[in-house]
Amino acid sequence: MKFAMQVTKGTLRVGYRDLDGDKQLIVTPASPASLEMRTRLHRERRSFTLYFEPLGGHVEGLTGTVDYSTP
Fold it and tell me: Whose CA is closest to 23, among 50, 5, 46?
């Protein structure tokens, strides 16, 4: 899976789980995120989850892309 995210204002924590366990990264206007990782789909829902948490106030202008494919 590959994902890229950016915000125009504020600080955003993005949580996710890859094959090595729980991870997180911080996205700010000056530091957009781009990440490639391996993850498993939830068996019943055939989905994965990204968690978003604003840090220190409001976050504005969240945009991004997610590209997931199976081997």
Answer: 50
Task: List CB contacts of 35: < 8 A, sequence separation 6 or more.
Answer: 2, 3, 4, 25
In Å, how far from its chain's centre is CA 34? 9
Answer whether 67's CB lies under 8 Å from 3's CB.
yes
Query: Could you report the per-residue pLDDT of 20-33, keeping only the tens digit for each?
Result: 888 999 999 999 99
Q: Which token pair is 55?
A: 């840090």
Domain ranges of the chain: 2-65
Lookup: tokens for 31: 């530091």
Reported as a single tens digit per residue, the pLDDT across 46-60 is 677 889 999 999 999
